[in-house]
């Protein structure tokens, strides 16, 4: 199988594309966050949480980069158009999609084309595709 070609690195998506997560905190932690917000250290709870996450990611940046390289992950965003996948099918190849960030498959890609051209999908982050394509690839998504 052929690895999906890596586009230029884009560590953080521009344009505000984000995913919502939910976390549970004990009341004392939440109260301390609220106190820091009240004291003006952060504009709101989300600002503190984002800052804390970015600080932890920066702390582990070297390990993250080494792991991305070792696992041959595409870092950033990778989009597959219908034309991209038709070219893969014409070449009689299959893609192994491995992305840390966002992987997306165009809305006009049929489930049949996706199954014929994509051998596996491993995404750490977000995977955008039509429900029909996700269903067609369900046994190949790790």
TrEMBL record:
Pfam families listed in its UniProt record: RHH_8
The name of this protein is Arc/MetJ-type ribon-helix-helix transcriptional regulator
GO BP field? regulation of DNA-templated transcription
Q: Which domain of life is it from?
A: Bacteria
